[in-house]
Queue: 2 jobs
Job 1
Amino acid sequence: MEIKAGHTEPPLVRLVFSVLWNELKETIGSAPTATLLRRAIIISQDTCPVLARIIIEKNGREYRYEVPAEADLDPQTCDQIGDFVDTVLALLARLTGNVLVRQLLSNPLIRQLSEKEQ
Amino acid sequence: MQKLKTYIESLDEILHGGIPEFAVTVITGEPGSGKTVLTLQTMFNNARHGAKCIYFTTLSEPAPKLIRYTQMFEFFDEDLINNNFKFADLGSALREGGPDQAMERLIEVVEAEQPDIVAIDSFKAIHDLVPDTESARLFVYDLAVQLSLWSVTTFLVGEYTPEEISHSPEFAVADAIINMGTETSELASLREIQIKKLRGSSFNSGKHFFEIGSAGVRIYPRVGTALNIESSTSGGRVSSGVPGLDELLHGGLPSQSATIIEGGTGIGKTLLGLHFMARGLSEGEKGIIFTFEETPDQLKAIAAHFGLSIGSGTDVEIQYTAPVELLGAKWLTLARDRVQELGAKRVMLDSVSTMAMGVTTERRFKDLIYTAVKMFRSMGVTFIMTMEAPELLGSSMLTGHGISSMSDNIIMMRYVEVESQLKRAISILKMRGTSHENDLREFKITNEGILIGEPFKHFQGVLSGLPTPAAQ
C-alpha cells in the first residue's frame, strides 16, 4: 500500500497501530508494547490529538488496545501519524538500540510513514 | 550502553562506571545496613546533576522520619526537594487497594512526572502483600517493564533473607543486585557491600568494606581489585638523599620503583626514609609518610634533630594510623586519595612490620602490599617501605612476610660486631633491572643524619654479623 502525504486512506490510524502493536508484541511481548506505545502517545498527543482517544489497558493478565473508529476520520491524522511512528522509533532506539527499529522499518507501511526512511 | 553514575566514587569504580541506564536494581540487606542511605545518596547526587528523582515510600520507614533523618546527611539539599527530588507515598494506595492500586499510582506519577530515577522503599512491603508467587512474578515483571520503558532507572529497596533472594521474582527480573551487610571481626563490626549481579557490565566482585558518616556511604574497594588510576611512567632516578647511598645505587632509586629498607631495630631505617623525603622536598617534590609507629610529632622531631626539613605539613604530609585500627582497604583508598590530592611523588611507609600486626592474615597482608606497590607505581610515585629484621646481628633471613619479591629494590642495613664495637653496615641486595654496587659499606649516624663510609675491606663474613679479619 502506498501512502501519500495529505491523502487519507482509512482506516490509517487503526492500521498503523495494528502493525506497530503486532510487530512489537511478537518480539518484546504485550506489556512492553503497551507501555512503549502509551509513552509514544503521551509524547505525540499534543500534535496529534486523535491519539489521545486510543485506549491501552490491562485486561486481566494481558494488555489490549482499542482505536476508536472516529480516529480515522480526522483529516489531519495522515500527516501526523508519521510523527507518531517516528516517536515510537526514537523511543525504541533509545531504549533498545537499533535492532527493533530496523525490524519495524522492514514493514513497508512503517517505512513509508517514517522520516528516517527519507 | 550508557551508565548512571552513583557519584559515590568508589562505588562507581566497583560498578565499572555505574549502573546501566534504565536498569532495575535491587538493594538488599539486613535492617540498618545502609540500603536507604545508599539509595538516597545516589538519588540526591543525581538530582544535583539534573536528574529528576522520585523516592516512593511504602509501609516500612514512615516518610516523615525518613525526611527528618535524610536531612542529617551532607548530600541532602533542600533546594532540590520538589524540584529534582520528590518524596511520594505509595503506602496509602497499598492500604486501600493492595499492590495493583500501588502500581496504578506509581504509573500515574511516572507518566505525569517522567522521572529519570525512581526508588521504592521498601519494595519488600509490596512483595509481602502479593498473594502468591505467580502474581508476584507478574507484578514485578510489569513494574520492571513500565519503569524501564519510561526510561527510568529503578531502585527496589528491601530486607530479604538469603532464601528470599534465591526465590523472589524481583531478583530474577533485576538487572543489578547490591547486597549490604556486616561482618564481625572479633569485637568490631565491619560494614560490607557486594555486587551480586550486574547485567551487561563487568564489575569488581567480592566484598568491599564501607562506612556511613555524615557525608553518607564511603566505600573502600576490596584490596587486590584494580584501583582506577591511569598509569604513567617517567623513568630516571631519584636521589635517596644520602650521597654515599646514591653512589651504591648508581645514581639513586629508579623513579616509580618500590624499595624495602630492611634492618634491625634502631639501625636507622626511619632516618634513611626521612632523608629520602627531605631530599624530595628540596627538589620540589611533595611526599606523604604513612606511619604506623611514630606519631607525626615524633617523626618531625627526629627529622629536626638531624637537620632534615620535611616541611610544615603541606609539602610532606604525615598520616598516622594505629595498627590496631587498620582496615587494609580503607587505608589503601585513603592513601590513593591523599597522594592524588597532594600530587605526591614520594611515599614512605614506616613500617610494614607494624602494619602487618593490623592485618588478620598473611595472605591479606601480601595482597595489601602488592596492591599498594602497584597503585603507587601507576601514580608515578617512588615508594619506600621500612621493614624490621627479626635478628639484631647478621642476616640469615631475608625480608619477612614474603614480600621481598614485590619490591623492586632491597636496601639491607645490618649491625656488625667488630672488635667489640657495634658498627652499622649497608648494602644493596637487589635492584630490579638495573646495576648497583655490591659493596658492603659501613655507615654512621651523625648529627647530620646518615653518613656512608668505606667498605669493610679487611673483614669477611660481615653479613653474618660477626666478621673475621680477611686473609691477607
Job 2
Amino acid sequence: MNDKYKFVEFLGLRFNVANDLSVIVSAILVFILVFALSRKVTMRPGKAQNVLEWMIDFTNSIVKSAMPDGSGKQFNLYAFVLFLFIFVSNQLGLFFQLKIGGFTYVKSPTSNPLITMGLATISLLVSHYYAVKKFGFGGYLSNYARPVKFLLPINLLEEFTNFLTLSLRLYGNIFAGEVLLALIGTVAKSLGAVTFIAAMPLAMVWQGFSVFIGAIQAYVFTTLSMVYISRKLEQE
Amino acid sequence: MAGLLVLGANQVALGDMLFILVSFIVLALLVKHYAWGPVTKMMDARSEKITGDLDYADQERSRAEKLAKEREDALKNSRAEAVEIVNKAKESGETQKKSIVSDAHSEAEELRQRAKSDAAKAREDAMSGAQNDIANLSLEIASKVISKELNADDQKSLIDSYIKELTVNETK
C-alpha cells in the first residue's frame, strides 16, 4: 500500500505509468485470448471456437436481460469487450505484479479509481450518445423531467451517482482484494517461518476468492452498464 | 497513494482516463475485426442454416407422408380393382357356361325331336307302303287262288280289317 508510481507528463496531462502499462498488458491479453480462440472459424465449431462462442453467448445474455426486446444487439460487442477487459484486468494483479526499483509497473489496472472511472465514463458516454441518437437532443433533455417534472434534480443527481457507484464499486472490490493480499504478505514476513506457513493457506484462500470477486465484479459492471444504457433508451 | 484516493490532489493522473478510453476503443476495434466479426457472422450463418435445415426436414417429412398416403390409397384401389376384375370374370364365365349348356340342351332336344319325328314318319311310310303292297299282293293272291268273282272293294275292306288286327297285335 506504500507503492510508488512513476508519472509522465505529456501534453499537460499526467500519466501514471503503472496504470497505463497495466491497461496495455490487459488489453493485449484480451486480444491474444480472442485472437487465439478465433483462428479457425467454421460452421462446425472446434474447441476454441466453442469457448469463444460460449463467452459471446454469455455477454449477449447480459445485454438481452437488460434489453429484452432485441434492441440491444448493437451493444453486444461493447458488452463482450467490456466484460473480458474488466475480467482480465481484475485477475492481472493477482497473478502478475511487476515492481522494479521500488516502483510498481504492472498491477491490476482496475485497482485504481481513475481507470474504473474511465471505464464508467465510456459506459455513460455510450448511454448518452445513444439516447441523443434515439430521441434527438430535445427529447434527450426532456427525458430528465420524466415521469414528473419535480424529479428533474433527482434525475440529474442520479447521473453522478451512477457514475460514482459504477466506478467506485469495481475499484473498491479490486483494491480491497489487493490490500488484503498485501497484508497477508506482510504477516507472512513478520515472524519468520511460523507465520510464513500460517499465512500460506490464507493467501491461497484469499487469492481464490479474489478470482471469484474479479469475475463477479466484471459481470456486475457489464450488467449495470447495460442497465444504465437501457434506462437511457426508454421513456418512462 | 493517498493522493490517488483523493480527487483533486496534485498527484491525480487524469491522463489515465484518456489513456484507457483510447486503449479500450482500440481494443474493441481490434476484437471486432479479428474475432467478433467472423465468429458472430458464423453464429448467425449457423442459426440460419439450422432454421433452414429444420424447415427443409419438416417439408420433406410432410411430402413423404403425403406420398405414403397416396401409395396406400393406390394399393387399396388396386386391390378393389382386382377383386372387381375377378368377379367380372367369374360372372362372365358363369353366363357363358349357362348359355353353352342351354344351347347344348336345346340342340340336343331338337335333335331328339327330329330323330323321333323322322323315325315316326319312316315307320308310317313303311307301314302304309307295306299295307298297300300287302293289299295288292293279297288281292292278287286271292283273285288267283279263289278266282271267284269277288268284288275288289269287298276284298280290300276285308284285308284292311285283317291288317288292322295285325297292327293292333303288333303294338301290344
